[in-house]
Amino acid sequence: MSISSRISSELIRVEKILKQSGLYKEFSYVERTDVETSYNPITGDHESDSSSTTYLFNAVVLNTRSADRLEASAYSLLSDIVVMAANVEFDVRPGLEFTLGTQVWNISSFTLNPENSMYEITLGRK
Known about the structure:
Elements: H1 3-21, E1 24-40, E2 45-66, E3 77-84, E4 97-100, E5 103-112, E6 118-125
């Protein structure tokens, strides 16, 4: 058994444990794209189509806290989460909106560990 197949099987096992224990929370991210289809030179209007893709992923919520006044943050509430990079099918960047249940959170900051296997993300809410 190669090391990569061993790691893959262990990650599957870890994910099953996280799901069974209730530590995994399901987040969603909606990526919207606008495609310009035509331009009307008489009115100056651009007609466009838009589409969206919804991504679902699981994360472990580590803690939620009030933002410290000394932190350079526009958020009043912060939450730290950990996400396996293999479960993320989009480009992670500050400002993205994730939804957990009915609550909308924005990425305040993130780091990708050196092995590129896990994101540590700080989310913020106003």
